# Entry
Amino acid sequence: MKSILITGGAGFIGSHVIRRFVNKYPNYRIVNMDCLTYAGNLENLKDVERSPNYQFVKVDVCDADAVAKVFADFEIDGVIHLAAESHVDRSITNPMEFIKTNIEGTVVLLNAARNQWGDDFNGKRFYHISTDEVYGSLGDEGLFTETTAYDPRSPYSASKASSDHLVRAYFHTFKLPVVISNCSNNYGANQFPEKLIPLIINNIKSNKPLPVYGKGLNVRDWLYVEDHAAAIDTIFHNGEQGETYNVGGNNEWRNIDLVKELCRIMDKKLNRKEGESEKLITFVTDRAGHDLRYAIDITKIQNELGWEPTVKFSEGLELTVDWYLQNEEWINAIVSGEYQAYYQLQYGER
Ligand code: NAD
Ligand code: DAU
# Structure
């Protein structure tokens, strides 16, 4: 039996990756390492928590002793590292958390893998999940490729870029068998409602203002989270050692157009008059250093590993809206307490 450590498995993308691996690979022992920050939620894994090949450990990736113990106790063969502080706006108000978890935590895991594996890398793999934001900001033209120079511009993206460099350094210096992927914006069920799509769905439902930063002209490339989980599966098993793969949805949207599309879908679902939800759109102060456009060239992963997105945006958005409307308890549990405090700080009295 192989033992695979998935970090950040109680978060948005991590929970989809855990579900996919637990169900698809009964011969793998899946160890979910998560310290359950505000973004970690074991409710996301209710359907798999009793599976015999699944184990949760509440461990902070920065805690070197605890991490080393998990590697030894479970004889870890492979790592899929997703644990991170992931929200750009929080990195602007509190950068240190990002430096600690995203940089230091990644090095703690790299060291633990080296110590556990020694020089025998047979059947071993360290897979680091990163973001397209490390490449910086595009103008109206062009796409990020795997050879685009790094140019991170927020504390979040700088911390992820730093962790990518460290992972590559361990490959070159210590021959650690690593692979990295850099993905565009994910959307789907279980995303914490500080991120654009779930925040807008939730605010439309509650008739609250829809905060659009600046003029809403920034562009993001959206990928359905289960397509990302499939890409992670493919790269983990078939990616070349030391290589990087860009993952994206070929699906660019200006924020304002996306928010209007969500209003249109929600008007229908909530039996509101056409155009009613759009009245909630409120342009607010722009994000500091707001990157204009991200867009990913997926040629390499398509040609070399045969992965491509399968879920059309219209389909994925419907599924996502339906999930949030059907899971009121999930959202109600989150939008209390810490979320309220964050919302006040980020958007003021609204
Ligand atoms: P998320 O914020 O929803 O979840 C992060 C998870 O990591 C949470 O469960 C949290 O409890 C856990 N965590 C945080 N700090 C930890 C620590 N010190 N020790 C142990 N666990 C800790 O994040 P997400 O959106 O699911 O992103 C997951 C990964 O994918 C991140 O590395 C992120 O940079 C990357 N990524 C995200 C996107 C996206 O659109 N969300 C796109 C590309 C890449
Ligand atoms: O590109 C990949 C990245 O995508 C990931 O690495 C990050 O972890 C993930 O959070 C996401 O980052 P973004 O900053 O692009 O996502 P967010 O949902 O925060 O914002 C999407 C766009 O919407 C961005 O241009 C900012 C804008 N926005 C966001 C919020 C929360 C608004 O206009 N209003 C808002 O209230």
Remarks:
- The domain at 2-190+222-249+294-311+340-347 is CATH 3.40.50.720 (Rossmann fold).
- The longest strand covers residues 28-34.
- The chain has a mean pLDDT of 97.
- The longest helix spans residues 95-117.
